[in-house]
Amino acid sequence: MKSDIQKPRRKLLQHLAREIRDERVLKAMAEVPREEFLPEGSRHLAYDDVALSIGSGQTISQPFMVALMSSVLSLAGDERVLEVGTGSGYQAAVLSYLLPRGTVVTVERVPVLAQSAEERLRSLRYANVTVREAGRELGCQEEAPFDAVLVAAAAPRLPTALLSQLRRGGRLVIPIGSLEEQELVKATKTDEGTSIQILGGCRFVPLVGQDAWPENSRPSKGFFRS
Q1: 10 Å Cβ neighbour count for 143?
Q2: For residue 119, is it left (φ>0), alpha (ψ between -120 and 50) or beta?
Q3: pLDDT by residue (tens digit) across 47-96?
Q4: CB burial class (10 A; 0-12, 13-18, 19+) of residue 101?
Q5: For the chain, percent helix, then strand, then coil, each to nearest 5?
Q6: CATH topology of domain 63-202
Q7: pTM
Q8: What is the dihedral of CA 159, 160, 166, 170, to 10 degrees?
Q9: How far is CA 175 from CA 14, 18, 39, 142, 182, in A?
Q10: Mean pLDDT of all residues belonging to the chain
């Protein structure tokens, strides 16, 4: 299996390097073994630049989107970062690599995914990641404040609950829009309020909870998380 993925991995990294300028992020994408975060039957697709199903109605994000969201957080390596939507744990592993002196708290609302991601991350020795099962309120208020928040699911609006968990100067990256399509947004907490940057179109599964979509919200057409 290892030899079978070397060529597609190199091809993916060459593709990412055309758009992603952060060398540390590219290194993380090269080092984190995406195949380890996929079901056995999908591992041969690990280095295709597509989102893939991981069960429970959830997906592992498209590698380009993982790299983009990681890069726009502009991490120095010693921050405390919150991820909302653990899924398989792949994005958390990339963040872990980028934070050799920092920590990652990641929350997941699907218990079976939270448990499997925690076991996977532990077995792969991503020691600076803490996996928590999500509560009713978005994020992880008891661990706040954070230097950055990355949300791997789409909200109808900028969630005030997540903004409140940021330090001054902290960055929040989140897809915002309808159930069918969104724009990736970077919100920076400033002395004056919140600075917004639009990063382009995307398509993610819905963010469910207070200040987001109601339980059982689904897009009219099925799709995988970008």
Answers
A1: 15
A2: alpha
A3: 999 999 999 989 999 999 999 999 999 999 999 999 999 999 999 999 99
A4: exposed
A5: 35, 30, 40
A6: Rossmann fold (3.40.50)
A7: 0.93
A8: 70
A9: 25, 22, 25, 24, 6
A10: 94
Half-sphere exposure of 51 (CA within 13 A, CB side): 23
Give the per-residue pLDDT at 225. 41
Active site residue 61: yes
| C-alpha to C-alpha distance for 34 and 182, rounded to whole angstroms | 25
List pLDDT tens digits, range 146-156: 999 999 999 99
Residue 127's alpha-carbon distances to 21, 74, 77, 104, 147, in angstroms, are 27, 21, 15, 9, 19
176 beta partners: 155, 183
Strand partners, 195: 188
Q: Tell me the pairing of strands 166-177 and 103-108.
A: unpaired
pLDDT at 3 (0 to 100): 58
Sort residue 39 into left (φ over 0), alpha (ψ -120 to 50) or beta. Answer: beta
Please identify which of the residues 61, 70, 71, 226 carries the catalytic annotation: 61
